[in-house]
Amino acid sequence: MATKNQQKSAPANSKGAVQTSPKKAEVPEGEEVVFGWSNYKWMLAGVLTIVLGFVLMAGGGSDVPGEFNYEEIFSWRRIGLAPMVVLAGFGLVGYSIMKKSKK
After folding, report:
1. Could you say which of 15, 35, 75, 77 has the lowest number of CB atoms within 10 Å?
2. DSSP string spanning 65-93?
3. What is the pLDDT of residue 31?
């Protein structure tokens, strides 16, 4: 005589093994995924933009410790362009968080 658990098991194939089909990860009923793939793509683009901005800010040092190169340190790239690129990256990350999934 079979128990209740054995009666409700999945059908077995001819070799006696339980058949399973590969499925995507299922979300439990009543819960929903917060971010979709497009959100993660936008977030990655934002993080890479922030990193690019910090790379643009880097440098400007001198080989001689007592020397100060005003034009190199306060160039337009480091003072103007790089902060705008970093802020654009933060904007992309904010957009990726606020963007609604299509589901």
Report:
1. 15
2. TT---HHHHT-HIIIIIHHHHHHHHHHHH
3. 74
Q: How many domains are there within the chain?
A: 1
Cβ pair 89, 49 in contact under 8 A: yes
75-84: long-range contacts, CB 8 A cutoff, minimum separation 24: 81/56, 82/53, 82/54, 82/56, 82/57, 83/53, 83/57, 84/53
Instruction: Answer whether residue 24 is part of any domain.
Output: no
Are 38 and 74 in contact by the 8 Å Cβ rule? The answer is no
Residue 101 lies in a domain: yes
Higher-confidence residue: 4 or 51?
51
